[in-house]
Amino acid sequence: MSFDPVNLGDLFDPAQNPGKIALIATDGAGGHREFTYAELYRRVSSLAAQIARRGLKRDARVALLGANSAEYLIAYFAIMRAGLVAVPVNTRQPEATIRFILEDAAAEFAFAERPVPGLPTEGFAATLTAPEADSATVAPKPHEVAMVLYTSGSTGRPKGVALSHEGQLWALRARRAPMIEPEKERVLVAAPLYHMNALFASKGALAAQATLVLLPRFTPESFIDAIGAFGVNALTSVPTMIARVIKEEARLAATDVSSVRRVQMGSAPQTQALWDGARRAFPGARVTSGYGTTEHGPATFGPHPDRIPTPDLSLGHPLPGNEVRLTGDGVLEVRCPALMEGYLNLPDATARAFRDGWYHTGDVMRRDENGFYFFVGRGDDMFVCSGENIYPGQVEGMLERHPAIHQASVVPVADDERGQVPVAFIVLQPGAAATENEIKSFALANAAPVQHPRRVWFEAELPLTGTNKIDRRALAAEAALRISGRAG
């Protein structure tokens, strides 16, 4: 960034391209609003001044509860510009979990789509009615927290990840360094802004002076329509989103998607079949895989410094400024300026996550001879069958090579003899047919016998979490019910 901010709320220079469209905020029903860089800056500055007049102390936590919108982004930046801490909240979680997050974060105020019991709340519409004012940016201290993002809670209660201004700005600079003419991009974001994937992609687009096209929520239909309507050339997503998009063959055929030059997927495992499908849907695009955790962000891997082409499914080569190593069991550890300041109110969990300054990601990787890294599986997802480690992503990748399978999800169920065995939930390609025995035979012919799914169920679609990832916990519970004969 030629503009060199120190506060994450001052992400872009309004003087660089004041009249350029910074944000196209759609309503998901065909309407949209456009904001220039100058106007977006004015809105953020004015709201920051209004927030400052509330008298909240430095570092007070302000929650954000709502769907993607221009107002959400304006509030997010204004909170940090005013020296406060932004706390995006996943509104698709149970009410009890939302209450826990607000209490754990000690939120003192909220911007929300509806009143929040026990918390002073302002509607998002207020972000566009703040009297015009030029507020002074609060200069953060070293390691001062800019925002707290909460983990999904898939392995327990959500944990608040404290992220600093300087760390997140470093990550944005690291990601932008290898980009070519980013200011010419129109970047589509449809994943929720309470998740690192969409939030970082949105900030990256604005920091690079690109144009951000923002959907309020993801549907495959609105995603495809936005590409055609706005000439989008960069898609950001989690893999399940692209998997649903490429099923919409008729809509894709009726829409001009020739503008798409980059399809980036991240935050979950991917398969070769999905990459091949993305290339068929967007033949002019380069498919890439992003990687990052909430705890250290998506600025670890990128292009090879010697310009060696990145292999399919690779996360890339370590970017400058990152120190990367694999433990004896292949788990990735990272050391870089973007690392979290710690888990909120959880000193023991913070201590377990770090080893002599290295962040222990829990993600099992492999490294090839050129220094490219590949995701093998999440340590938490790995299970043992007959003494063998099984990573669901590897089995899913094998299953998705079957021509009739569009999407596969593998989970373990308890087995008295083998400990745990894999079972599979399958979504077929449009118009395709297959039987359980056919899928089992394919698995036995293409992988080690221990990996073949002992049961196969065919589904119209797979359940998703609030961040559009496959809900493995829900599938595992459903599998256990079906095996026991107690499923409804």
How would you briefly describe this protein structure?
By secondary structure, the chain is an alpha/beta fold. Helices cover 27% and strands 26% of the residues. The chain has helices spanning 37-52, 70-81, 95-104, 165-176, 196-207, 220-230, 239-245, 249-253, 272-281, 347-353, 392-399, 436-446, 472-484; strands at 21-26, 32-36, 61-65, 85-88, 107-112, 121-123, 145-150, 160-164, 186-189, 211-214, 234-237, 262-265, 286-289, 301-302, 314-318, 323-326, 331-335, 342-343, 354-355, 358-367, 373-378, 383-385, 388-390, 405-415, 419-428, 456-458.
How would you describe this protein?
It is a single chain. This protein has 488 residues and is an alpha/beta fold. The strands form six sheets. The chain has a seven-stranded mixed sheet, with helices on both faces. Strands 14, 15, 16, 17, 19, 20 and 21 form a seven-stranded antiparallel sheet that branches. The protein starts with 20 loop residues before the first strand and ends with a helix. The model has no long low-confidence stretch (mean pLDDT 92). It has helices at residues 37-52, 70-81, 95-104, 165-176, 196-207, 220-230, 239-245, 249-253, 272-281, 347-353, 392-399, 436-446, 472-484, and strands at residues 21-26, 32-36, 61-65, 85-88, 107-112, 121-123, 145-150, 160-164, 186-189, 211-214, 234-237, 262-265, 286-289, 301-302, 314-318, 323-326, 331-335, 342-343, 354-355, 358-367, 373-378, 383-385, 388-390, 405-415, 419-428, 456-458. The radius of gyration is 23 Å and the shape is globular. α1 (37-52) crosses α2 and α6 packs across α7 (239-245).
